[in-house]
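Predict the assembly for these four chains.
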Amino acid sequence: MTKTMRAARMHAVGEPMVIEEVPLPAPTGADVRVQVRSCNIVPNLANILANWTTWFPQNPLPALPAIFGLDPAGVVDAVGPDVVGFAPGDRVYVSPGRSCGACPECRRGEIMHCQHFAFAGYFGLTPTSRVMLDRYPYGGLAEYMLAPQSALVSLPDNLTFHRAARFGYLGTGYAALAKAQLGPGSTLLVNGISGTLGIGIALFALAQGVTTILGTGRNHDLLERVRALAPERIQVFSTADGGAIDEWVRDVTDGGVDGYISALGPNTPHEPFLQGLRSLRRGGRAVNIGATAGDVPIDVHHLMDQQQSLIGSCWFSAGEGQQMAALAGSGAVDLSVFEDVVFELDKVNEAINGLENRHGGFSNYIVQPTA
Amino acid sequence: MTKTMRAARMHAVGEPMVIEEVPLPAPTGADVRVQVRSCNIVPNLANILANWTTWFPQNPLPALPAIFGLDPAGVVDAVGPDVVGFAPGDRVYVSPGRSCGACPECRRGEIMHCQHFAFAGYFGLTPTSRVMLDRYPYGGLAEYMLAPQSALVSLPDNLTFHRAARFGYLGTGYAALAKAQLGPGSTLLVNGISGTLGIGIALFALAQGVTTILGTGRNHDLLERVRALAPERIQVFSTADGGAIDEWVRDVTDGGVDGYISALGPNTPHEPFLQGLRSLRRGGRAVNIGATAGDVPIDVHHLMDQQQSLIGSCWFSAGEGQQMAALAGSGAVDLSVFEDVVFELDKVNEAINGLENRHGGFSNYIVQPTA
Amino acid sequence: MTKTMRAARMHAVGEPMVIEEVPLPAPTGADVRVQVRSCNIVPNLANILANWTTWFPQNPLPALPAIFGLDPAGVVDAVGPDVVGFAPGDRVYVSPGRSCGACPECRRGEIMHCQHFAFAGYFGLTPTSRVMLDRYPYGGLAEYMLAPQSALVSLPDNLTFHRAARFGYLGTGYAALAKAQLGPGSTLLVNGISGTLGIGIALFALAQGVTTILGTGRNHDLLERVRALAPERIQVFSTADGGAIDEWVRDVTDGGVDGYISALGPNTPHEPFLQGLRSLRRGGRAVNIGATAGDVPIDVHHLMDQQQSLIGSCWFSAGEGQQMAALAGSGAVDLSVFEDVVFELDKVNEAINGLENRHGGFSNYIVQPTA
Amino acid sequence: MTKTMRAARMHAVGEPMVIEEVPLPAPTGADVRVQVRSCNIVPNLANILANWTTWFPQNPLPALPAIFGLDPAGVVDAVGPDVVGFAPGDRVYVSPGRSCGACPECRRGEIMHCQHFAFAGYFGLTPTSRVMLDRYPYGGLAEYMLAPQSALVSLPDNLTFHRAARFGYLGTGYAALAKAQLGPGSTLLVNGISGTLGIGIALFALAQGVTTILGTGRNHDLLERVRALAPERIQVFSTADGGAIDEWVRDVTDGGVDGYISALGPNTPHEPFLQGLRSLRRGGRAVNIGATAGDVPIDVHHLMDQQQSLIGSCWFSAGEGQQMAALAGSGAVDLSVFEDVVFELDKVNEAINGLENRHGGFSNYIVQPTA
């Protein structure tokens, strides 16, 4: 008799998830099966489910019906014969990033630049990424999932599954910090610092020696909560008060910031993004991980004259996730600031649509397929 | 009796240069005096002289009357007491780039990111760069000039002063190639390949192992001359024929180019610049050294999704110039493709305004203050 | 009926290979099967077969009886269901490097730093690498072999299988050049320039803009053949003449070389290695890919005072191999200098033991399992 | 009447310092004059004064009689006409590192690789560095000194002159950390962690997110004081107890450390240095800033097989010092662990010879020329 598991699946674009019994997959090759204890509901999920095929028709969704769920954490339950680094019982985060292993970039280790890069349980990043979604048709909104061992992050004992399921957005910020090349003693501007991405950037920037963090947002209370994380190193500015970000930055720095990370949410105007760019010192680096969309009017001549870069950054490698786990495990980064809001799998649609009442990025929306 | 020298000076913005006798400066500290044998007339000079104060009012011109002249080459004639690496008789190119030595960037060796960076004999790059223009009020359109030893490039015997005076635009391309991180075996798109910047990029890219160079421009004859430099490695495309650059690139590559350098001239539309951006493979790098101006509508979400960077690059260090000199000296790069068009100092205004009849970037317009 | 293939296998350490019929393997997962047209017999193979278990008892050989053969090239013949980038009929080089995909280094893309790194068909590099040898028990001395798609290099039409089978040693030099960070315009010392590694270093260094190559060896005729590859850029020095390498380098450079690659063969004395180190300029980088063994007496205080590095480099990624293929395909690197010496599979033992009569690194010893 | 100042000078190698009145120098060019409030007495000074000319006859001392004193801090008192970034009254650390500004390395910004690099008030690093000692014949053991503005570090208000005078050894560790490329989440072994260099490495490593620091030394009490800086992230091991460092590291890590910094003092045996090398994981990096002398027997074949590097690191740039000042100013690094032991200038010889009673690297020996 075929074993089954419970999974939430979307049968058509825009429809609610349906909880169904589907066959329990068995791992082959270098794949593992993970019992999912926690799956983060990222703020953007409802948008993606409803609009992806309209907004990005060139890039694929998983074949429907599909199990979505970007950021799972759980326990390894079974392993394929070629698995060498993990064993049943291991506590892991499962990165959704899937690289093909065959394109020129993969073959020289640039796994995040894979020509077929896809997010399992979410969408594909390139027109040819469907091949990876077909290979790994498993997201975290199910009791079990298969994933390649290369996508796992081993978790320290002091890190709960719910916090680990936050690694997707935390890691996006972590990789952005690396691309900004912010060594110890540097200054950083973060647009959207009180959001899901922004708080993580602040935490990891503090841990790696960024001296001064300048953060912007709208909500004064949330900004103050962020500032309180390290009052001597974090300064905040609300764009709701009417001033320009770059003018503020000129006032509080000597010639601008070394780095700027844009973590603005969807549907924000272009002006704060551009004010961030104008806040860079000569030679500074901007890294974009936010949802700013549309054609942004950028003065490329100024970027040239000032030797500045605008760097796109998308996700992070599982190996970077392992470094984050080490930081959390050692206490160098404290992830206890997040407030878990937990839903059972049956309530998945409420979770997806219930993100309105959250406390900015401090809220951590979780679906818990197994306990 | 005070010694004098002949110099071309501009007394007011937009006025022609006047040939005058001015005091011969004497080197102090770590400065050298160079007898100028050749000064390149860069295509943009007339524009800068007439429009800088209108276009970039925040950044300074030299104090008028001023000796302009961006790219001089000549012979060291006298040295200050602290000069350690050069001596009278040395053949040198003089980079106009002036760094302050005191700002945080200078003090960690990032001399091109100096907060007061200026081009002696041209303009300042930052609002506070006037201090460097005042310290070095000497361009190449005079019989002699002072410069710091840190700005010199020692020239090999096989390199003429006229070719060496080309180093400014050659070096701009050279530094852009470095920022694009184009290792051997890579592919490169160059927009504006038949211009003053573009041809140099092609020559140095070939010398450093870029396998495939895709070049665009308008003039078919000039494009064909560029292609003939290395027919097996260079392909060209004329935007005058109506197609889109990115479609062509997709046709002739597997997924796009590793790097893209924009070397478009002033007053070009934004569309070719953007088509270049869209030609990058996932993870590719764009470097802008062209004159594209205005607010360019850039899809920053696409750059993010595809892990792509847009990197501004402005000029090059004298040390990079020394590497270029080594390449030219060894024969690894052949600069004989350039056609010198030489003017005496008295004809400086004709030279500045006479760039219309040139053969694209193959023409090398030179003023020769001393012979 | 099980299909079979002919393979050379060693049954016990030090014994000759035996030609046998063994089962033809079928590819699974992301593996391909390659029909081997050429397998390079590297100079060190006889040594490895006879002495590995004595010299490096902590690191494993493949389980005996084993099919050896480090550097195969051939035609893809069948593919597993998860292969995405290759298809039957593709001409490929098969890198023997096997990374686990699961260790922290692999998970962040540092595939050459894998904790279980092994050379399929040769030996393991770490005490725990047996797991990779067991997973891929196939070398190139057989009619067919299995390999993961991540290990393949797609070959251009103008590159023969015999030349492609040279990629192992060529790539070792190529990766060493990258680690030495030798940009265009730099100077390089190569110890052992006329050997199998050295000639490849010279060819790729020329192609990537190393201006001056200083090469040492013993045999004057071979050194002169190397110099003739680019007489204006290569200088040679025979250690058979009694002088010291570093004295020669001081004579022909201004303060030493930017980079030094040691490609000395086995059983060479330590002194030339050390003279190479002493040839570096302040801030220079040494990369070791040679067979120098034993405890080399190194003045680490001098390395410190002079900000110099000694960098170990072992092999290269398949992606780097793809870049080498691009260079060869475009004509930027000409591999026609090598003289193929070809043996049928039946003559494998003669090939392994017959390397005495070669013309240094110009000879290319090949076993051809299928034609 | 010529103004004078009090200075300690050594008239002949090995003789005690003599306090003398010497002319007060006036700054020219881009030099500043600093009133010295504090000068660190580094542990190695007595050795250098007595033995340099014997140990390193190829590299110069300053011309005698000379004012020594490696690490001064004080107040800018007067500035030359070309100084742009500093003004009288500024509190500064004065790095002794002097680069020529003219050699190829300086001209591309690699100021620490200068061919004439010297430590003003200490010694020259290359045979041709006397030119820089002659240009700047001023150490910190005097009431005033001249220095180029490029050598200054601006100090935050919360940093005392005595702590700032520690920047030389702190910065040496800081630059070593950068060369080890220890990102957040990494592991580090420090040999000599309780010494003057070692404690600084620990403090800055913690601040930049090194997760796990493994430190070795001899004195159990001092090791315990180091461990107490961050008990959850620092582990210590005494070599006085008889075990091998690499065995300990294997026990407490998974496959070795990412980085290893040797900060061993003079006259230590080679074995701990080598055990440190053997503690690296595959792909790991060793950085040497210790005083290990003589020919160290290194297994370069192992470094090659394991893709490991041995990197020499000497001092740091003033710009790196500025980053350290930012870390101290923000509270990200707390330098209050050091115990100042202060001598007046008259007691300079006692200070130089009195370092025996110190508490390892926690003691901070200072001469205070002005108060």
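The two ends of chain C are 25 Å apart (CA to CA). Chain C is about 25% helix and 25% strand.
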